[in-house]
Amino acid sequence: MERINYSEGKPTWSWVERKDGSKQLKLTLRYYDDGKRRSRAKRFSVADSTKLDTDRKKDNALRAWIKELEAEQDKLIKEEREREQAEAEAAKLASLPSATSTVAEYISSFIDDLEASGHIERSTVYSYRRFARAIAVAFPRVRLIDLTTTMVQKWENGLIADGYSTSTVTKYHRLLSMTCKHAVMVDDLVKNPCQAVKAPKQQAPSPNALDVEGFARLAVTLDAMQPSQVVTAAYIAMFTGMRNGEVCGLRWREYDAANHTITVTEAIGSAGGSTFSKSPKTKVSRRTIPVAPRLADMLERRRAAMVAELQTKGVELTPREFGELFVIGDVAGRYMNPTTLTRAWKSLAETFGLVGTQGRRVTFHDLRHSFATVAIAAGADVKAVAANLGHTNAAMTLNIYADASPRAKQIAINQMGVTVEALGEVEPYAENANALPDPDDANAVTTD
User: Fold this and answer.
1) What is the pTM of this model?
2) Rounded CA gap, 144 and 142, in Å?
3) What's the angle, vertex CA 69, arms to CA 65 and CA 70, rounded to 5?
4) N or C: which end of the chain has fewer CB within 10 A?
Protein backbone atom coordinates (compact mmCIF):
# COMPACT_ATOMS: atom_id res chain seq x y z
CA MET A 1 0.00 0.00 0.00
CA GLU A 2 1.55 3.26 -1.19
CA ARG A 3 1.23 6.30 1.01
CA ILE A 4 -1.04 9.09 -0.29
CA ASN A 5 0.12 12.67 0.06
CA TYR A 6 -3.17 14.42 0.88
CA SER A 7 -1.39 17.73 1.47
CA GLU A 8 -0.78 18.03 -2.27
CA GLY A 9 -4.47 17.50 -3.06
CA LYS A 10 -6.74 20.24 -4.45
CA PRO A 11 -9.51 21.34 -2.03
CA THR A 12 -12.85 22.72 -3.21
CA TRP A 13 -15.52 24.32 -1.01
CA SER A 14 -19.21 24.34 -1.98
CA TRP A 15 -22.63 24.88 -0.41
CA VAL A 16 -25.12 22.04 -0.36
CA GLU A 17 -28.83 22.61 0.20
CA ARG A 18 -30.60 20.19 2.51
CA LYS A 19 -34.24 18.99 2.28
CA ASP A 20 -35.31 21.34 5.06
CA GLY A 21 -33.97 24.28 3.09
CA SER A 22 -30.88 24.79 5.25
CA LYS A 23 -27.40 24.87 3.75
CA GLN A 24 -24.15 23.23 4.80
CA LEU A 25 -20.57 23.41 3.58
CA LYS A 26 -19.04 20.54 1.61
CA LEU A 27 -15.27 20.13 1.32
CA THR A 28 -14.02 18.04 -1.60
CA LEU A 29 -10.34 17.00 -1.79
CA ARG A 30 -9.06 15.73 -5.17
CA TYR A 31 -5.74 13.83 -5.17
CA TYR A 32 -3.81 11.12 -7.02
CA ASP A 33 -3.48 7.56 -5.75
CA ASP A 34 -1.28 5.14 -7.68
CA GLY A 35 -1.48 7.39 -10.73
CA LYS A 36 -5.25 7.56 -10.66
CA ARG A 37 -7.28 10.64 -9.87
CA ARG A 38 -9.49 10.21 -6.83
CA SER A 39 -11.48 12.39 -4.40
CA ARG A 40 -12.75 12.43 -0.83
CA ALA A 41 -15.57 14.65 0.48
CA LYS A 42 -16.64 15.85 3.90
CA ARG A 43 -19.83 17.65 4.90
CA PHE A 44 -19.91 19.95 7.91
CA SER A 45 -22.97 20.36 10.10
CA VAL A 46 -25.11 23.44 9.60
CA ALA A 47 -23.82 24.90 12.89
CA ASP A 48 -20.19 24.30 11.92
CA SER A 49 -20.82 25.62 8.42
CA THR A 50 -21.91 29.00 9.77
CA LYS A 51 -18.71 29.21 11.79
CA LEU A 52 -16.48 28.67 8.73
CA ASP A 53 -17.06 32.20 7.53
CA THR A 54 -13.44 33.10 6.71
CA ASP A 55 -10.69 31.61 4.53
CA ARG A 56 -8.45 31.19 7.59
CA LYS A 57 -11.07 29.08 9.39
CA LYS A 58 -11.58 27.00 6.27
CA ASP A 59 -7.81 26.40 5.97
CA ASN A 60 -7.68 25.27 9.61
CA ALA A 61 -10.63 22.93 9.01
CA LEU A 62 -8.87 21.53 5.91
CA ARG A 63 -5.63 20.84 7.81
CA ALA A 64 -7.54 19.14 10.62
CA TRP A 65 -9.34 16.90 8.12
CA ILE A 66 -6.06 16.01 6.35
CA LYS A 67 -4.62 14.90 9.73
CA GLU A 68 -7.67 12.66 10.19
CA LEU A 69 -7.13 11.17 6.71
CA GLU A 70 -3.43 10.59 7.39
CA ALA A 71 -4.19 8.92 10.74
CA GLU A 72 -6.73 6.70 9.00
CA GLN A 73 -4.16 5.88 6.34
CA ASP A 74 -1.48 5.05 8.94
CA LYS A 75 -3.89 2.65 10.61
CA LEU A 76 -4.65 0.90 7.32
CA ILE A 77 -0.93 0.63 6.47
CA LYS A 78 -0.15 -0.82 9.88
CA GLU A 79 -2.97 -3.34 9.58
CA GLU A 80 -1.75 -4.34 6.12
CA ARG A 81 1.83 -4.81 7.32
CA GLU A 82 0.68 -6.89 10.28
CA ARG A 83 -1.41 -9.02 7.96
CA GLU A 84 1.51 -9.51 5.55
CA GLN A 85 3.83 -10.38 8.44
CA ALA A 86 1.34 -12.89 9.79
CA GLU A 87 0.96 -14.44 6.34
CA ALA A 88 4.74 -14.61 5.93
CA GLU A 89 5.18 -16.28 9.31
CA ALA A 90 2.41 -18.72 8.53
CA ALA A 91 4.05 -19.53 5.18
CA LYS A 92 7.42 -19.97 6.90
CA LEU A 93 5.97 -22.32 9.47
CA ALA A 94 4.23 -24.25 6.73
CA SER A 95 7.52 -24.60 4.82
CA LEU A 96 9.57 -25.67 7.85
CA PRO A 97 10.52 -29.33 7.87
CA SER A 98 8.82 -31.59 10.34
CA ALA A 99 9.35 -35.15 11.45
CA THR A 100 7.23 -36.20 8.48
CA SER A 101 9.81 -34.69 6.10
CA THR A 102 12.35 -37.03 4.58
CA VAL A 103 15.71 -37.34 6.26
CA ALA A 104 17.30 -35.57 3.29
CA GLU A 105 14.85 -32.65 3.43
CA TYR A 106 15.28 -32.18 7.16
CA ILE A 107 19.09 -32.23 7.05
CA SER A 108 19.13 -29.80 4.12
CA SER A 109 16.93 -27.35 6.03
CA PHE A 110 19.04 -27.80 9.18
CA ILE A 111 22.22 -26.91 7.26
CA ASP A 112 20.46 -23.90 5.71
CA ASP A 113 19.63 -22.62 9.20
CA LEU A 114 23.23 -23.13 10.39
CA GLU A 115 24.53 -21.23 7.38
CA ALA A 116 22.05 -18.38 7.84
CA SER A 117 22.98 -18.05 11.51
CA GLY A 118 26.65 -17.59 10.64
CA HIS A 119 27.68 -20.05 13.36
CA ILE A 120 29.70 -22.20 10.96
CA GLU A 121 32.24 -21.29 8.32
CA ARG A 122 31.64 -21.55 4.59
CA SER A 123 34.06 -24.44 4.29
CA THR A 124 32.13 -26.32 6.99
CA VAL A 125 28.83 -25.66 5.21
CA TYR A 126 30.34 -27.04 2.01
CA SER A 127 31.50 -30.19 3.83
CA TYR A 128 28.11 -30.65 5.51
CA ARG A 129 26.34 -30.50 2.16
CA ARG A 130 28.65 -33.20 0.79
CA PHE A 131 27.94 -35.40 3.81
CA ALA A 132 24.21 -34.69 3.46
CA ARG A 133 24.23 -35.98 -0.11
CA ALA A 134 25.68 -39.29 1.09
CA ILE A 135 23.02 -39.54 3.81
CA ALA A 136 20.27 -38.73 1.28
CA VAL A 137 21.42 -41.64 -0.89
CA ALA A 138 21.23 -43.97 2.11
CA PHE A 139 17.72 -42.87 3.17
CA PRO A 140 16.12 -41.51 -0.04
CA ARG A 141 12.44 -41.78 0.93
CA VAL A 142 12.69 -42.40 4.65
CA ARG A 143 10.83 -39.91 6.83
CA LEU A 144 12.77 -38.58 9.79
CA ILE A 145 10.11 -39.88 12.18
CA ASP A 146 10.57 -43.39 10.75
CA LEU A 147 14.36 -43.42 11.14
CA THR A 148 15.44 -46.03 13.70
CA THR A 149 18.63 -46.90 15.53
CA THR A 150 18.77 -50.23 13.71
CA MET A 151 18.59 -48.53 10.30
CA VAL A 152 21.40 -46.12 11.16
CA GLN A 153 23.61 -48.83 12.65
CA LYS A 154 23.09 -51.10 9.63
CA TRP A 155 23.94 -48.23 7.28
CA GLU A 156 27.16 -47.31 9.09
CA ASN A 157 28.25 -50.94 9.33
CA GLY A 158 27.64 -51.26 5.60
CA LEU A 159 29.85 -48.25 4.89
CA ILE A 160 32.71 -49.81 6.84
CA ALA A 161 32.21 -53.10 5.02
CA ASP A 162 32.32 -51.25 1.69
CA GLY A 163 35.74 -49.86 2.53
CA TYR A 164 34.85 -46.37 3.76
CA SER A 165 37.35 -45.01 6.28
CA THR A 166 36.30 -44.71 9.90
CA SER A 167 36.99 -40.98 9.63
CA THR A 168 34.47 -40.57 6.78
CA VAL A 169 31.80 -42.68 8.50
CA THR A 170 32.29 -40.72 11.71
CA LYS A 171 31.70 -37.46 9.84
CA TYR A 172 28.45 -38.79 8.38
CA HIS A 173 27.42 -40.06 11.81
CA ARG A 174 28.06 -36.72 13.50
CA LEU A 175 26.01 -34.73 11.00
CA LEU A 176 23.06 -37.12 11.15
CA SER A 177 23.21 -37.28 14.95
CA MET A 178 23.51 -33.50 15.24
CA THR A 179 20.44 -33.09 13.02
CA CYS A 180 18.39 -35.60 15.03
CA LYS A 181 19.51 -33.98 18.29
CA HIS A 182 18.20 -30.65 16.97
CA ALA A 183 14.92 -32.33 16.01
CA VAL A 184 14.55 -33.55 19.59
CA MET A 185 15.26 -30.07 20.97
CA VAL A 186 12.50 -28.51 18.83
CA ASP A 187 10.07 -31.36 19.65
CA ASP A 188 10.05 -32.80 16.13
CA LEU A 189 11.36 -36.10 17.52
CA VAL A 190 10.92 -37.81 20.87
CA LYS A 191 14.41 -39.32 20.88
CA ASN A 192 17.59 -39.25 18.82
CA PRO A 193 17.84 -42.54 16.86
CA CYS A 194 21.60 -42.02 16.51
CA GLN A 195 22.24 -41.80 20.23
CA ALA A 196 22.46 -45.57 20.74
CA VAL A 197 24.41 -46.18 17.52
CA LYS A 198 27.98 -47.28 18.08
CA ALA A 199 30.07 -45.04 15.89
CA PRO A 200 33.11 -46.70 14.32
CA LYS A 201 36.15 -46.64 16.55
CA GLN A 202 38.73 -44.23 15.23
CA GLN A 203 42.43 -44.76 15.61
CA ALA A 204 44.39 -41.56 15.36
CA PRO A 205 46.87 -41.97 12.49
CA SER A 206 50.50 -41.54 13.41
CA PRO A 207 51.96 -38.36 11.94
CA ASN A 208 53.87 -38.87 8.70
CA ALA A 209 56.53 -36.45 9.88
CA LEU A 210 60.12 -36.02 8.86
CA ASP A 211 62.62 -37.31 11.37
CA VAL A 212 65.29 -34.97 12.74
CA GLU A 213 67.79 -35.84 10.00
CA GLY A 214 65.21 -35.48 7.23
CA PHE A 215 64.08 -32.17 8.70
CA ALA A 216 67.65 -30.85 8.73
CA ARG A 217 68.30 -32.04 5.17
CA LEU A 218 65.15 -30.33 3.90
CA ALA A 219 66.06 -27.07 5.67
CA VAL A 220 69.54 -27.08 4.08
CA THR A 221 68.01 -27.85 0.68
CA LEU A 222 65.51 -24.98 0.90
CA ASP A 223 68.27 -22.64 2.11
CA ALA A 224 70.02 -23.13 -1.22
CA MET A 225 66.92 -22.27 -3.27
CA GLN A 226 65.39 -18.98 -4.30
CA PRO A 227 62.77 -17.71 -1.79
CA SER A 228 59.81 -18.50 -4.05
CA GLN A 229 56.27 -18.76 -2.76
CA VAL A 230 56.34 -22.51 -2.17
CA VAL A 231 59.88 -22.51 -0.72
CA THR A 232 59.07 -19.72 1.73
CA ALA A 233 55.74 -21.33 2.63
CA ALA A 234 57.41 -24.67 3.37
CA TYR A 235 60.03 -22.96 5.54
CA ILE A 236 57.34 -21.12 7.53
CA ALA A 237 55.40 -24.35 8.11
CA MET A 238 58.56 -26.22 9.15
CA PHE A 239 59.70 -23.66 11.71
CA THR A 240 56.32 -22.46 13.08
CA GLY A 241 53.87 -25.36 12.64
CA MET A 242 51.37 -23.03 10.95
CA ARG A 243 48.54 -24.59 8.94
CA ASN A 244 48.29 -24.34 5.16
CA GLY A 245 45.57 -21.66 5.21
CA GLU A 246 47.38 -19.71 7.94
CA VAL A 247 50.58 -19.61 5.89
CA CYS A 248 48.63 -18.38 2.85
CA GLY A 249 46.90 -15.72 4.97
CA LEU A 250 50.08 -14.35 6.58
CA ARG A 251 50.68 -10.67 5.75
CA TRP A 252 53.94 -8.81 6.20
CA ARG A 253 52.40 -6.60 8.88
CA GLU A 254 52.02 -9.69 11.05
CA TYR A 255 55.76 -10.36 10.98
CA ASP A 256 57.58 -8.38 13.65
CA ALA A 257 61.20 -8.42 12.46
CA ALA A 258 62.39 -6.43 15.48
CA ASN A 259 60.96 -8.82 18.06
CA HIS A 260 61.25 -11.93 15.86
CA THR A 261 57.60 -13.00 16.06
CA ILE A 262 54.74 -13.90 13.74
CA THR A 263 51.16 -13.24 14.83
CA VAL A 264 48.50 -15.47 13.30
CA THR A 265 45.33 -13.41 12.77
CA GLU A 266 44.07 -14.52 9.36
CA ALA A 267 43.71 -17.68 7.29
CA ILE A 268 42.59 -18.48 3.77
CA GLY A 269 39.75 -20.96 3.54
CA SER A 270 38.30 -22.77 0.56
CA ALA A 271 34.90 -24.24 -0.22
CA GLY A 272 33.43 -25.49 -3.46
CA GLY A 273 36.37 -24.25 -5.50
CA SER A 274 36.27 -20.69 -4.12
CA THR A 275 38.59 -19.17 -1.55
CA PHE A 276 38.00 -16.55 1.13
CA SER A 277 39.71 -14.87 4.06
CA LYS A 278 38.62 -15.97 7.53
CA SER A 279 39.67 -15.92 11.15
CA PRO A 280 41.95 -18.71 12.37
CA LYS A 281 40.46 -22.13 13.15
CA THR A 282 39.84 -21.44 16.86
CA LYS A 283 40.41 -18.63 19.35
CA VAL A 284 43.57 -20.41 20.43
CA SER A 285 44.69 -20.43 16.80
CA ARG A 286 45.09 -16.65 17.02
CA ARG A 287 48.56 -16.75 18.48
CA THR A 288 52.04 -15.25 18.43
CA ILE A 289 54.88 -17.56 17.40
CA PRO A 290 58.60 -16.90 17.95
CA VAL A 291 60.65 -16.79 14.76
CA ALA A 292 63.87 -18.81 14.65
CA PRO A 293 66.98 -17.11 13.19
CA ARG A 294 66.94 -19.41 10.14
CA LEU A 295 63.32 -18.52 9.39
CA ALA A 296 64.09 -14.82 9.91
CA ASP A 297 66.81 -15.10 7.23
CA MET A 298 64.40 -16.77 4.82
CA LEU A 299 61.74 -14.11 5.43
CA GLU A 300 64.24 -11.32 4.80
CA ARG A 301 65.25 -13.00 1.56
CA ARG A 302 61.58 -13.24 0.57
CA ARG A 303 60.98 -9.59 1.47
CA ALA A 304 64.00 -8.51 -0.60
CA ALA A 305 62.75 -10.54 -3.59
CA MET A 306 59.31 -8.91 -3.45
CA VAL A 307 60.81 -5.42 -3.07
CA ALA A 308 63.04 -6.06 -6.09
CA GLU A 309 60.03 -7.20 -8.13
CA LEU A 310 58.11 -4.06 -7.17
CA GLN A 311 61.05 -1.89 -8.25
CA THR A 312 61.23 -3.72 -11.57
CA LYS A 313 57.57 -2.89 -12.13
CA GLY A 314 58.16 0.71 -11.10
CA VAL A 315 55.84 0.43 -8.10
CA GLU A 316 56.62 2.20 -4.83
CA LEU A 317 54.73 1.19 -1.71
CA THR A 318 54.76 2.80 1.71
CA PRO A 319 55.71 0.53 4.63
CA ARG A 320 52.04 0.34 5.56
CA GLU A 321 51.00 -0.60 2.02
CA PHE A 322 53.75 -3.24 1.85
CA GLY A 323 52.56 -4.61 5.17
CA GLU A 324 49.19 -5.45 3.59
CA LEU A 325 50.86 -7.77 1.06
CA PHE A 326 50.79 -11.49 1.71
CA VAL A 327 54.16 -13.04 2.49
CA ILE A 328 53.67 -15.80 -0.06
CA GLY A 329 51.31 -13.80 -2.24
CA ASP A 330 52.17 -11.65 -5.25
CA VAL A 331 53.13 -7.98 -5.43
CA ALA A 332 49.63 -7.15 -6.71
CA GLY A 333 48.25 -8.01 -3.28
CA ARG A 334 46.74 -11.41 -4.09
CA TYR A 335 47.16 -14.35 -1.73
CA MET A 336 48.17 -17.83 -2.85
CA ASN A 337 45.36 -20.36 -3.08
CA PRO A 338 45.93 -23.07 -0.43
CA THR A 339 45.08 -25.74 -3.01
CA THR A 340 47.66 -24.29 -5.39
CA LEU A 341 50.23 -24.32 -2.60
CA THR A 342 49.45 -27.95 -1.78
CA ARG A 343 49.94 -28.97 -5.42
CA ALA A 344 53.15 -26.94 -5.78
CA TRP A 345 54.58 -28.55 -2.63
CA LYS A 346 53.58 -32.04 -3.82
CA SER A 347 55.62 -31.53 -6.97
CA LEU A 348 58.60 -30.30 -4.94
CA ALA A 349 58.33 -33.18 -2.43
CA GLU A 350 58.27 -35.69 -5.27
CA THR A 351 61.35 -34.06 -6.78
CA PHE A 352 63.19 -34.36 -3.46
CA GLY A 353 61.84 -37.87 -2.83
CA LEU A 354 60.66 -36.85 0.65
CA VAL A 355 59.26 -39.75 2.66
CA GLY A 356 57.95 -39.40 6.22
CA THR A 357 58.15 -41.71 9.21
CA GLN A 358 55.06 -43.61 8.03
CA GLY A 359 56.59 -44.37 4.65
CA ARG A 360 54.37 -41.97 2.70
CA ARG A 361 55.18 -38.93 0.62
CA VAL A 362 55.42 -35.86 2.84
CA THR A 363 52.44 -33.52 2.30
CA PHE A 364 52.45 -29.83 3.12
CA HIS A 365 50.47 -30.54 6.29
CA ASP A 366 53.13 -33.08 7.26
CA LEU A 367 55.54 -30.15 7.60
CA ARG A 368 53.39 -29.00 10.52
CA HIS A 369 53.68 -32.50 11.97
CA SER A 370 57.43 -32.36 11.42
CA PHE A 371 57.70 -29.11 13.37
CA ALA A 372 56.00 -30.67 16.39
CA THR A 373 57.84 -33.97 16.16
CA VAL A 374 61.29 -32.41 15.88
CA ALA A 375 60.52 -29.88 18.62
CA ILE A 376 59.47 -32.61 21.06
CA ALA A 377 62.43 -34.77 20.03
CA ALA A 378 64.66 -31.84 20.90
CA GLY A 379 63.18 -31.77 24.39
CA ALA A 380 60.86 -28.79 23.94
CA ASP A 381 58.12 -28.20 26.52
CA VAL A 382 54.91 -29.83 25.26
CA LYS A 383 52.76 -26.90 26.38
CA ALA A 384 54.96 -24.52 24.41
CA VAL A 385 54.70 -26.74 21.33
CA ALA A 386 50.91 -26.88 21.75
CA ALA A 387 50.72 -23.08 22.01
CA ASN A 388 52.76 -22.66 18.82
CA LEU A 389 50.58 -25.16 16.99
CA GLY A 390 47.38 -23.46 18.15
CA HIS A 391 46.09 -26.58 19.94
CA THR A 392 43.44 -26.00 22.58
CA ASN A 393 45.43 -27.96 25.15
CA ALA A 394 48.67 -29.88 25.55
CA ALA A 395 46.79 -33.20 25.83
CA MET A 396 45.90 -32.96 22.14
CA THR A 397 49.56 -32.45 21.28
CA LEU A 398 50.60 -35.37 23.47
CA ASN A 399 48.01 -37.68 21.93
CA ILE A 400 49.35 -36.98 18.45
CA TYR A 401 53.08 -36.61 18.95
CA ALA A 402 54.09 -38.25 22.25
CA ASP A 403 55.08 -41.54 20.58
CA ALA A 404 56.11 -40.02 17.27
CA SER A 405 59.81 -40.14 18.02
CA PRO A 406 61.76 -42.70 20.07
CA ARG A 407 64.49 -40.08 20.21
CA ALA A 408 62.16 -37.82 22.25
CA LYS A 409 61.77 -40.55 24.86
CA GLN A 410 65.52 -41.07 25.09
CA ILE A 411 66.15 -37.32 25.41
CA ALA A 412 63.57 -37.14 28.21
CA ILE A 413 65.37 -39.90 30.12
CA ASN A 414 68.77 -38.34 29.49
CA GLN A 415 67.56 -34.90 30.60
CA MET A 416 66.17 -36.37 33.82
CA GLY A 417 69.54 -37.97 34.53
CA VAL A 418 71.38 -34.75 33.73
CA THR A 419 69.07 -32.83 36.05
CA VAL A 420 69.70 -35.19 38.93
CA GLU A 421 73.47 -35.19 38.40
CA ALA A 422 73.49 -31.39 38.25
CA LEU A 423 72.34 -31.26 41.86
CA GLY A 424 75.72 -32.63 43.00
CA GLU A 425 76.04 -33.91 46.55
CA VAL A 426 72.71 -33.96 48.40
CA GLU A 427 71.81 -35.10 51.91
CA PRO A 428 70.38 -38.63 52.03
CA TYR A 429 67.11 -39.42 53.81
CA ALA A 430 69.00 -41.93 55.98
CA GLU A 431 72.67 -41.66 56.95
CA ASN A 432 73.19 -45.41 56.80
CA ALA A 433 70.70 -46.91 54.38
CA ASN A 434 72.25 -50.35 54.67
CA ALA A 435 71.34 -50.49 58.37
CA LEU A 436 67.61 -50.13 57.62
CA PRO A 437 65.40 -53.24 57.59
CA ASP A 438 64.84 -54.90 54.24
CA PRO A 439 61.21 -53.95 53.24
CA ASP A 440 60.95 -57.29 51.42
CA ASP A 441 61.85 -59.26 54.54
CA ALA A 442 58.58 -60.28 56.19
CA ASN A 443 60.42 -61.26 59.37
CA ALA A 444 62.16 -57.92 59.74
CA VAL A 445 61.51 -56.37 63.12
CA THR A 446 61.93 -52.70 63.87
CA THR A 447 62.73 -51.41 67.33
CA ASP A 448 62.65 -47.94 68.79
Assistant:
1) 0.63
2) 6
3) 115
4) C
